[in-house]
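Human: Cast an eye over this sequence-structure pair and say how the chain folds.
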Amino acid sequence: MGINEFIAIQKDKIGHRNYSDMAKVIGVPADFLLRLSKTESKEEMKQINIENLEKVAKYFCITIDELINAKILNTQEINDCNTHFINDECTDMNILLNELIYKVNNEGIRFNGIEMNKESKQIFIDSLDVVKKLVESKL
């Protein structure tokens, strides 16, 4: 399986409508993920942004090497890590924050039982992005 097939399969399994939605959750530009989904050879990988590639690998709980070489033998482990349900088993803070952002953008969210308006949702998302950057900078 190539990286392009892996990305396409995971997009469908996780339930993203398109690469743009998936890219938002992962935290990479949509054009990067779309390009990655069309990458068919390791030669094409030489032009890939390594920081974005690292974010994609982290999202799927695999190494960059596993992602590039498509050494994923058990995709069930990946699905268990990213099912778009926050549960007690998920301990990766980045995944949890991305899940919250995804839910706010796509499913609506309530605060103390009251539906958040568009401005409140954006403030919440911006706050989560700041938290992510602060944590990443201190790691």
